[in-house]
Specification:
globular
Length: 323
């Protein structure tokens, strides 16, 4: 199959963990069609120089005052590197993504294969000897493989620059759900597709249940704030409302100290979403994780989202102004 013409600018928002950023950059430079890599634009919030190998195609852009990952991505995508101008294609990667050597060639070919496609992403693959939390995250990320999707995660995206410009870039007012919002808008013009013909490895994936707990708290802190300024699709409402379900169940358990008859209903209320979500994941054909680990994962997951959502109320309160 003939490879699509044109070159690709890789945009990588970054903050912290430079060793994973180095691995991400190296995986881009190791692509089996290096002539298609126009530039690698790292937009970092770090203030100190990054300890990354120098390369003529690598440009480090310092944006310590960036307020969101969307702002970093948009800044990188709009940056003009040299007199040759900007590339026809954009690839957005997180700073902890290791691409398969054929990622770029495969994705470009698949974009050529179906003209209606506007965004392409690859499936996630486990690292060597992955912990159970990483295996669960991989199962979750691969639910849309070889299917047309309603939205895609932003960890590895390939699209035309004109498509990015047509939707006005990533939504800079959102701290979370920005990739869902962005790709959903792109999907109004064509097909969003995740392929199993190539892959990436998420180097920064959760390695323990403690790490999962902390990360989900951070993610869910912005749940309520992210509702403003956009139409929330139906698929997002369970993740928004379930933390309140869990908080209600925990409140009922506390009240059961005074009213013992509330204890069993409270336990049932608390465990119902855990059981339903665990069963849904367990029944997926590509799942290889034992059911008891899924139960533990979703117990941690919903507890963290309840804590994070409650903590996120502070972002809705009016800020004090100083004269």
């Amino acid at each position: 199959m003939k490879l699509l013409t044109g070159q690709v600018d890789f945009v990588i928002p970054h903050m912290g963990r430079p060793e994973m950023l180095v691995a991400t950059i190296e995986s881009i430079l190791a692509q089996n069609c290096p002539e298609r890599v126009h530039q690698i634009l790292v937009v970092t919030k770090n203030t100190e120089p990054l300890a990354v190998p120098e390369h003529p195609k690598l440009t480090i852009l310092y944006r310590p005052d960036a307020t969101s990952i969307s702002e970093q991505r948009n800044f990188g995508a709009s940056h003009v590197v040299d007199a040759a101008g900007q590339s026809e294609w954009l690839a957005f990667l997180d700073a902890d993504i290791q691409l398969a050597p054929d990622w770029l060639a495969t994705c470009l070919n698949l974009m050529q294969e179906q003209p209606k496609r506007v965004v392409l992403t690859a499936m996630q693959k486990d690292a060597q000897d992955p912990p159970v939390t990483e295996r669960i995250r991989t199962v979750l990320c691969n639910t849309k493989v070889d299917k047309v999707a309603a939205y895609l995660p932003g960890c590895n995206l390939l699209l035309r620059r004109t498509s990015h410009q047509d939707v006005g870039g990533f939504p800079e007012h959102l701290q979370t759900c920005e990739d869902s919002y962005y790709t959903e808008r792109l999907g109004q013009a064509g097909e969003l597709y995740c392929t199993s013909q190539t892959y990436y490895i998420h180097l920064g994936e959760d390695k323990s249940f403690v790490q999962s707990f902390k990360k989900e708290i951070w993610r869910s802190e912005y749940n309520l704030k992210s509702l403003s300024g956009r139409k929330v699709p139906l698929r997002e409402w369970p993740s928004i409302l379930l933390p309140f379900w869990v908080l209600l169940a925990l409140l009922a358990m506390l009240l059961s100290i005074l009213v013992p008859s509330l204890f069993l209903p409270a336990i049932a209320l608390l465990m119902l979403p855990v059981l339903l979500y665990s069963l849904r994941l367990y029944r997926l054909p590509h799942n290889t994780v034992a059911f008891h680990y899924l139960l533990l994962f979703y117990t941690v997951y919903f507890a963290a989202r309840a804590v994070g959502t409650l903590a996120g109320v502070r972002f809705l309160l009016p800020r004090k102004t100083t004269l």
